[in-house]
Design brief:
It is built from 14 helices and no strands. With about 325 residues, it is an all-alpha fold.
């Protein structure tokens, strides 16, 4: 039987890769939140995917060659890619609407959804402690989704406005939409994870990265052609401006930032996949929650966002239950 020291030494590269991937994705989130007021989400997804293609092909070469992109189940690859497109689009929309830490926290309810979906579709069993952890986690989601996400600056702007009631109602609806989208992104991610566990065992890791990139390009291009002129970006749809805004050619600075986002997406995905390839999932998976405290730090540094006491309780409930079900399932 291997000692704890041996297991830890073997898992250290995976842990470092996972933390590196989480840090890279956190910077990507910061960049997207910064430019979300100038470009529609489908434009960002389009260029992010376009700029990620070259690094993905470099990863394909490192992994063994172009033959790894051959798939045995094209229907699975397409459906998984479509759901992942909805996952990331919902996630980016949420980033633009609510504090970054809340988006990241609500997204990381995905282990709870994965466990629940595995019971339903994969016929996996769960004990009483597992059900208690799920209940605690979903209760934490309810706590985080309370309208206490308001920052002091936003609250001041609302109070100083002459139409206080109308604007406050509008703001609450924005909070609800943003939180719902973050939660929805976690659910979509869980669906892809369960489907991958059931149908993706014979697919290569790089193919699971490549096909989603192609679908992102296709779908964001279709949205660009369909609504990219901004005709639906009216005052009535203010909360969804990030989706409905007209397509705008990025300037040099923003073009560079989107280029960085695309490269980070490819490198971050590779780091995460390598982490699970090199180390035991039960050891490295809980370190994915590193993304939550780093998002709190970025939110405070760049937007003076800080979770309230009640939201912090909800965050700890989600993280605690999520870590438990990850360790249990692994």
């Amino acid at each position: 039987m291997q000692s704890d020291a041996v297991i830890k030494n073997r898992s250290l590269p995976g842990i470092l890769l996972l933390i590196t991937g989480g840090f890279i994705f956190s910077i990507q989130d910061v960049i997207i939140k910064f430019i979300s007021g100038s470009y529609p989400v489908h434009e960002i997804v389009f260029f992010r995917s376009l700029f990620a293609v070259l690094p993905v092909f470099a990863i394909v070469r490192l992994e063994g060659g172009i033959h790894l992109l051959k798939t045995r189940n094209i229907f699975f690859q397409i459906m998984r890619s479509v759901v992942m497109f909805m996952c990331y689009t919902s996630y980016y929309l949420s980033i633009a609407l609510i504090p970054l830490s809340h988006t990241v926290t609500l997204f990381f309810c995905c282990p709870l959804f994965i466990t629940a979906l595995s019971v339903i579709f994969l016929k996996e069993r769960i004990d009483k402690k597992g059900w208690a952890a799920l209940f605690l986690g979903f209760l934490g989601i309810v706590v985080v989704m309370q309208p206490g996400m308001t920052t002091d600056q936003q609250l001041t702007e609302i109070i100083n406005n002459t139409e206080v009631i109308n604007n406050f109602d509008s703001y609450l609806s924005t909070i609800n939409i943003g939180a719902f989208l973050a939660l929805l992104s976690g659910l979509f991610y869980a669906i892809t994870a369960v489907c991958t566990r059931k149908y993706g065992v014979n697919e290569s890791g790089v193919s699971l990265v490549f096909y989603p990139m192609m679908i992102y390009l296709l779908f964001s291009g279709i949205i660009w052609i369909t609504i990219g002129d901004g005709r639906f970006a009216t005052d009535e749809n203010k909360n969804m401006a990030f989706l409905l805004r007209n397509w705008t050619a990025p300037g040099n600075k923003d073009f560079f930032l989107i280029l960085v986002v695309g490269c980070f997406a490819a490198v971050g995905t590779y780091c995460l996949s390598q982490a699970y390839r090199l180390s035991d999932a039960s050891v490295v998976a809980p370190f994915e929650y590193f993304a939550i405290p780093i998002s709190v730090i970025w939110g405070y540094l760049f937007w003076q966002e800080m979770p309230g006491f009640i939201q912090l309780i909800g965050i700890f409930m989600i993280v605690g239950s999520g870590v438990y079900v990850l360790r249990r399932s692994s």
